[in-house]
Design goal:
The structure is a homodimer of 211-residue chains.
Chain A: E1 2-7, E2 12-14, E3 22-28, E4 31-36, E5 42-48, E6 53-54, E7 65-68, E8 72-78, H1 79-88, H2 90-116, H3 119-138, E9 146-149, H4 154-161, H5 165-177, E10 182-184, E11 188-191, H6 194-201
Antiparallel strand pairs in A: 1-8, 2-7, 3-6, 3-8, 4-5, 4-7, 9-11, 10-11
Helix pairs in contact in A: 1-2, 3-5, 3-6, 4-5
The structure holds a DNA duplex (30 and 30 nucleotides).
Chain lengths: 211, 211
DNA sequence: CGATTACCTTGACCCAGATCAACCTTGCGA
DNA sequence: TCGCAAGGTTGATCTGGGTCAAGGTAATCG
C-alpha cells in the first residue's frame, strides 16, 4: 500500500503540469513548491518539512514544481488507491482537511509577509517560522538561546520572501550586526532572544504562523 | 439546521480572535478576509464571492477579520452541529476538502502575484481574476467584449494587491490609456480583448487562478 | 440647491530594494 | 595541492512604487 521514495538534494520530484501518480508526506528532509513565470521570475509557494503532505487528491496534474532541497525521504501512496481509501475511510479525509486548513492559514500569513512586510521583517519572519517548525518537530523546549539550521540557500530564501538574493544577504548581515541573530557558518543561526526576533518580524505577539 | 444571515455593506462579520459560533457560505454579495499589523498595515488574504465557504471547522477563534464589502447574504450553520454533521457525513468533509484545496491553489497564485508581479501586472491580474470568477458564476460566455463590476474600492484593491491606493489608481489609468480596459464610471470595466489582458497579467496562458 | 463626505486622480519628490559588478570563501574532485 | 564551481558578501547606482499634497467628482442630506 504505502512505500518509501528517496530523492537527492536538488532533484526535481515533479514539474508543474506533469501527471501526478502519487501523493505522500515528507518523512525526512525539505522540499519546496515553486511557481515560475515565463521570464524566469520565481516564487516559492510551499516549504514542505517532515510531516507535511504533498500532492492533491482529485487533481490529475501537478500545479507547481516540487523539488527536494535536501536529501529527502517521502512516504508515498499511489494516487488512485489513496483516493479510493479516502472515499471509504472518512477519518482520512477529515485528517487531510485539517492539514489543508492549517496550510491555508499558513499561506495567508505568508501573503501578509509578501504584500506588506519590509525586507528586514521578512528575514526575521522566515527565521522565526523555521525556528517554530523546528521546535514543534523536535519538541526541544525553547529555553535560553535557540538555534536553527536554515535548509535554504540565500537564493531560495529570496524566492520564499519575494526578494533578491543580494537583499537577503544584506539583511541577514544587518540582523547579525544588530545582535538579533548570531551566525555560525552560512546556514546555522542562533537566536539569543526570541521575543526580539518576533518583534523584528512584525508579528503581533506571535500570530498563527503555523508553517 | 441552516439559516440565513444578512449583513450591510461595510459591516464587520467577525474580528480576528473572536470566538466563531458559525460557519457558512456566501449566497450573495462580497466579503473579504484581512490581516492587520499593529501599525495599521493591512493585507487582504481572502476575497469571498458567492459559493465560497467562510469559517474554519475545528478552530475556536477566527484567525482573520471578515467584512462584508457589499450587502451580503450568507447561508450559515452553527459551528458545533456542523462539526458533528461533518463527522457523520463523510461526503461533507470530502466536499469541504475539495473546496479548501482549490482555495489553497488560489492562495498560491496570489502569493506569486504579491511576491513577483509588477504593479501593472497586479492590476491586470485582479481584473482577470474577477472576470473569471464572474464568468463562472453567471455562465455568461466570454464572447467579444467582457464587462466586469469591480466589487472593491481603490483602497480595497490596494489591500488585495499589496500596493497603495495611489498606485492602483495610476495603473488603472495607464491600462485605460493603453486600451487594455475601458472604464465606465469607477467601478465598471469592459475588456475588449481578454488575451491582451491576460498577457498584461503575466499569466502564462491562463494558469489556475481559481478564485 | 449648496454643503458635506467618500472616493478618485494626478503631480512632485523620495527611498527601499533591485540591478550590475567585483570579489571572497569553502569544499570537492582530478 | 591546485583549480574550479557553487554559494555568499559588499559596494555603487538606478528605479518602481511609496509618500505627501492638492484638487476633482458624485452621491447623499439638510
Amino acid at each position: 500500500m504505502k512505500y518509501y521514495r528517496s530523492f537527492q538534494a536538488g532533484q526535481s520530484i515533479i514539474w508543474a503540469g506533469d501527471p501526478m501518480e502519487f501523493v505522500g508526506s515528507v518523512v525526512n528532509g525539505v522540499a519546496t513548491l515553486t511557481q515560475t513565470m515565463e521570464d524566469g521570475r520565481r516564487q516559492m509557494v510551499g516549504l514542505m518539512l517532515p510531516s507535511d503532505f504533498v500532492g492533491r487528491p482529485g487533481r490529475a496534474a501537478a500545479a507547481f514544481d516540487v523539488t527536494a532541497k535536501t536529501d529527502l525521504v517521502m512516504c508515498c501512496f499511489r494516487k488512485k488507491p489513496f483516493e479510493a481509501m479516502m472515499a471509504t475511510t472518512p477519518h482520512i479525509a477529515q485528517r487531510l482537511l485539517e492539514m489543508t486548513l492549517d496550510e491555508l492559514d499558513a499561506a495567508r500569513e505568508w501573503m501578509l509577509l509578501l504584500g506588506r512586510k519590509t525586507a528586514r521583517e521578512k528575514i526575521a519572519s522566515l527565521i522565526a517560522i523555521i525556528a517554530r517548525r523546528d521546535a514543534a518537530l523536535h519538541l526541544r523546549a525553547a529555553k535560553g538561546g535557540i538555534s536553527v539550521d536554515l535548509p535554504l540557500t540565500r537564493e531560495e530564501m529570496a524566492d520564499y520572501l519575494g526578494l533578491t538574493l543580494e537583499t537577503v544577504s544584506r539583511q541577514i548581515s544587518a540582523l547579525k550586526k544588530d545582535g538579533v541573530i548570531i551566525l555560525d557558518g552560512n546556514r546555522h543561526v542562533s537566536i539569543p532572544d526570541l521575543n526580539r526576533l518576533l518583534e523584528e518580524a512584525g508579528d503581533d505577539g506571535d500570530g498563527g504562523m503555523l508553517a
